[in-house]
């Protein structure tokens, strides 16, 4: 049996007015929040502690283009 949790989402216009509260909620709950515009996903707010360690390692190893 698998448990699938529905990801919380918030419209971008509401996020604009409630950013501090949403950031606090993401940080405290540890759960990501999907940001939508016109009902379509455009971004995801993810707590730093939940970031994929492999992606983080790859990002820090890349050198900036010149």
Explain what this protein looks like in three dimensions.
- There is one protein chain.
- The chain has one domain (8-61): YefM-like fold (3-Layer(aba) Sandwich), CATH 3.40.1620.
- α1 (12-29) links the parallel β1 (8-11) and β2.
- The model has no long low-confidence stretch (mean pLDDT 80).
- Strands 1-2-3 form a 3-stranded mixed β-sheet, covered by helices on one side.
- The chain is built from 2 helices and 3 strands, in the order βαββα.
- It has 66 residues and is α+β, with helices and mostly antiparallel strands.
- The chain is 41% helix and 23% strand.
Q: Please describe the biggest sheet, giving its number of strands, its sense, and whether it closes into a barrel.
A: 3 strands, mixed
CATH architectural type: 3-Layer(aba) Sandwich
Question: Uncertain runs with pLDDT below 50, 5 residues or more?
Answer: none
The helix fraction, in percent, is 40-55%
Might you state the CATH topology name? YefM-like fold
Total strands: the figure is 3
Tell me the number of helical segments per DSSP (H or I, 4 or more residues long).
2
């Amino acid at each position: 049996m698998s448990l699938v949790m529905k990801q919380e989402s918030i419209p971008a216009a509401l996020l604009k007015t409630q950013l501090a509260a949403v950031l606090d909620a993401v940080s405290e709950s540890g759960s990501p929040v999907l940001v939508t515009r016109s009902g379509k996903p455009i971004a995801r707010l993810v707590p730093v502690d939940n970031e994929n360690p492999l992606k983080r390692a790859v990002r820090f190893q890349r050198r900036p283009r010149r």
